[in-house]
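From the shared-data thread, chain only:
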Amino acid sequence: MPRTNAPKPQALFAEAGLETNATSEAEPLSHQGSAPRRTREAVWTSLKPTGVGLREDTDARLTAAWEQTRLGLQETFEAAINAYCTKLKIPKTMKPDSDLKVPRNPDLVPGVPSEHATRKVVVRLTANTKARLVAGCKKEKMGGLDFVNDALNDYFDDLGIPDADDLRVPAEG
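Structure, as tokens:
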């Protein structure tokens, strides 16, 4: 006896709430494309990475400030730079096309170690804060390293953070 192929089963669909004995064939899925994309931009992408050298004494005070305030690196830098720029009478809101290139310290020669040990950190700043930083550097005729360290130390003074020498615990002898 020859073998016959059994008929392929058909999907039965019934609309919710309706009783029906009618059968219908399922139609292929429509190709609507991929899932919708995120429309909100991540916040950090609008921030400008800024590399700065921190001197040892400033780094020690930064740690003490964090212990006191629990502000993160970005928040501390933003607050310090903006407070310092306000004291220098730099406008609070900079033009959107302001220069964002932080000048180098004119006294430092590339490849020659400075007299102060520094630790390189990268912090993401808002475009306005970075523009204020650049304007402050130009006004004071300073490089970014000196300006940021001065701004941070001034901010730490306002917070009442002791100098780095006072933070060091004397060695037991």
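The chain has one domain: 44-167.
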